[in-house]
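User: Teach me something about this protein's shape.
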Amino acid sequence: MQSLKTRTLLLVASGAAGLAVLAVAALFLMPASSPVSAQKKEPPQSREAVQSSFAPIVKKAAPAVVNVYVSSRVRMSRSPFADDPFFGRFFGDDPDSGMPRERVQNSLGSGVIVSPDGVIVTNTHVIKARGETEIRVALSDQREFDAKIVAQDEKTDIAILKIEGNGEDFPFMRFANSDALEVGDLVLAIGNPFGVGQTVTSGIVSALARSQIASDAVFIQTDAAINPGNSGGALVDVKGRLVGINTAIFSRSGGSNGIGFAIPSNLVRLHVDGAREGRKVERPWLGARLQSMDRDMAEALGVARISGAVVMRVYDNGPAAAGGLQPGDIVIKADGFDVADARGVNYRLTTRGAGNVSRLTVLRAGSEMEVEVRLATPPEPTRDDYRNLSGPHPLDGARVANLLPTIAEDMELDLEDGVVVVSVRRRSLAQQYGFRPGDVITEVAGQKIIALGDLLPLLERRQRIWQMTVNRGGRELELRVPG
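Assistant: First, the predicted structure itself:
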C-alpha cells in the first residue's frame, strides 16, 4: 500500500506576498456521523433531473458573495546608513533621495454578507496585513464600499467585517445547520478565484469533521473547485443557504486538486452572534486535559479503535471533575456526534457553549458510558499571573506566566507545575540564549519552580553560574551560562 506523504495546505487568498503555505501531514480521519435526523434525499431519477440547472440557486446566493480587497502600507526598513551625513541622502528618509519609504501590499479574497445591515464573514488570513490597512468590498452589482474590521480570530480563521449602506438593505445569505450535512450532499462554492471575478463551482461534500488541518476547528471537505482568491467565499447548499466558509485546499501545485475545506456554518454563526453582541467567542472550559488517540496510545490502552480523545488529566474543582470524568477515559462522542480526536471534542464543546450541559460518550475499562458535564467559562488569569522579566539574568526580555490550566490548554502543554515562557523580546538576552514561547522553566539553581513566587526571588540573586532546567515539548534541557 502506498504510504501517506506530506501534502501542502494552502490558505486560498491571493496577494502580492504570494500564498500562505503550511506543510501538514495528510490526515484523513473517520468522518463524524451526524445524529441530526436528515430529510429524505434521493439521487436524480431521470435524465431530465440530471440535466437540471443550479441557476436558481446561484441567482439566490451569488449577490451575497463579495470580493474583499486589502491594501496595506508597510514602512520600509531604515537603512543602517540613514544617520550618516553623506550616505543619508542616498539611504535615509530624505524625500528628495528618490528611495521609497513605504511599500504597498495588496491581497484579494472573498466574503459573504450574512445580514441585511452589511455584516460580512471572511477569513482572518484574507484581511491580515501589516501596517496601515484599507479594506474595500465590491458587490456583485459592481458597487464598492469601505469596510471596517469588527472582530477576528486567528485560531478559527474567522473575521467579521461591516459595511454601511446608508439605511439601504444589502442582499444576504441565510445560515444553514452544518450539522445536518451528509457526505454526498451537493454544494456550490462561490468566490473570486485568481481575481478573475465571481465564479461558481459545484461538487459534493466529500467528508465531515476533518480535523488537524490548519486551525482550532474541524472542517467540511468538498471536491467543489476552490482556488487562490476563494478564501472567505461561500459554500452553499441546494437551497442557497450558507453551510461553510471556504478557507483552504490541499495542493501540490497551488491550484485545486478537488480537496478543499470549509469552516462549518454553525461555528461561523457563533462568531457573527458574538461580534453583534460585542463579545469574544471563547471555547468553554472542560476542566480536563485531552490528547488525541494514536496507534501507540491505542495499543497501550488495549483498544482497537484509533479514534477519540484520551483524558490525560482532570483538574480539581473543574466541570469535568464535577461531572465524573476520569483520567484514562476515552471520549468517542460529544452530544451524539462522533469525534475523531481532541480537536473534534473541542469543536463540539465550543458550538455547545458555556453554561450548557454536554453529554460525552466515553470508553472506560472497555465499557461505553455517558458523562454529563456542565461547561463553564475559562477561569481568567490575573495580572499577577504574568510578569515581564528584566535584569542581569538569562531570562531578560522574556514574558512568563504561571502554568494555570487554561494557559496550559491554550499552549498545548501537559505539565502541571512550572513557569511558562509566553513571548520573547527580539534581541534580548532571553532570545540570545535560545528561549522560546512554550518553554517551561522547572528548576533554577537547583530549586524546583512551581510558580512565579518561586522564580522571581531566585532571579534577583546574582549567580556566578546560571543553571536552569527547561522542559521543551516533553524534553528536559539544561542551561548553564556565566552570571
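Now, about its shape. DSSP finds eleven helices and 28 strands in the chain. The chain has a mean pLDDT of 82. If you'd like, I can walk through any region in more detail.
User: That's plenty for now, thanks!
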